[in-house]
Amino acid sequence: MFAEILREIVDGTAGGIGAVLMGYDGIAIEQYFKPCDGVDLQMVAVEYSNVVKEIKHTVDILNTGAMEEVAIKTERFYVIIRSLTEEYFIALTLQRDGNFGKGRYLLLRDAQKLVAALS
Amino acid sequence: MFAEILREIVDGTAGGIGAVLMGYDGIAIEQYFKPCDGVDLQMVAVEYSNVVKEIKHTVDILNTGAMEEVAIKTERFYVIIRSLTEEYFIALTLQRDGNFGKGRYLLLRDAQKLVAALS
Description:
Largest interface: A-B, 30 and 29 residues
Shape of chain A: globular
Structural class of chain A: alpha+beta
Oligomer: homodimer
Mean pLDDT of chain A: 87
């Protein structure tokens, strides 16, 4: 059922490339990726989990309230990360010309469904 | 002149709290902060520089194109980070009910001015 939700998010977002449901320990529960030239998207997800872990740690010690969302824009991609629980987050990668707002909305819309399925 | 640009960005963004022009080595060139209860905003900026350094490193090794922008949403704040040069970035912190879009726009608008002043 995780796979189904991930697929819906990626296919429902123009320019969507892949999504991964992952623990802050860097271990993926489920993922759905379309093929993409020149970039190992699985590696992208794993590497970003280190970044997210670092952000979460920073947010925790700074007393700025729990981390909810991180958006990273590079020359080629958008990566949108949404925190789900203390242990898990979801990351969506899309093309730079993709529909960032739609991807963000779908992550938000399905977050509760994923949280419920995780517990 | 850096101080003037930072002040304009913070005061021009509803909910703007502070901005810092900083090196990826964590050393600030200039900053402008309004007082904010319960949070050491200078510490926020320094801590986020570690995060940004980590993201930059990740982006570099992943071949996803240069990092342009990072947006972090927590329960209390937004932090918007814009890469300026290989060495420097600017970070804007605003209240959660602040005008995220305006802050993002002002960072983008003044990025070239800051890059020119940095070189």
